[in-house]
Amino acid sequence: MPGWFHISVGLVGAAAVCSFCAIAAGQAGAHIVLWEAEVCAFLDNRPLFPGHVLLIPRAHHEQLTDLPPSLLLPVFDAAQRLAGAVVTAVGAQGSFVAMNNVISQSIPHLHIHVVPRRPKDGLRGFFWPRHRYPDEEAASETAGAIRSALGP
Fold first, then answer.
1. Which end of the chain is less enclosed by CB atoms within 10 A, N or C?
2. CATH of the structural domain 31-150, one choice from 3.40.605.10, 3.20.20.70, 3.30.428.10, 3.30.1050.10
């Protein structure tokens, strides 16, 4: 399983390369927390809170309605495991698990947000401030804690 890696992603022909496909292929930078045959997960680079993870199918599917039935179990099994691991890793009391389809989907590749939650954490409605990790070390430590919480 890769840790942090970085290769710049450019254009192929007239179309831009999907940045999530590049991460899934090991060709773009990400703090990986889960690396399996059909899915991978990594820290959101503008998290709502430390531990905010994005889970993607490694094959390119733009939205939930495009996901083949054969990937439903691998994707949602990983989402379930990550929901628990994120809570454990960052000492949260719960999690928020969600996905957008087309609207508010900044990268057109199916992705599930797994966000740690605490009482009175300030999230209200859907207008949430995003924050970056203070530095790479903080992001790496958070990714490592989630990997450890996922277990072997």
1. C
2. 3.30.428.10
**Ordered per-residue pLDDT tens for the chain, 152 residues:** 444 433 333 433 323 579 999 999 998 989 999 999 999 999 998 899 999 999 999 999 999 999 999 999 999 999 999 999 999 999 999 999 999 888 777 889 999 999 999 999 888 766 566 778 899 999 999 989 999 998 87
Q: For residue 8, how far is the Cα from the chain centroid?
A: 19
Residue 40 pairs in a beta bridge with: 35, 56
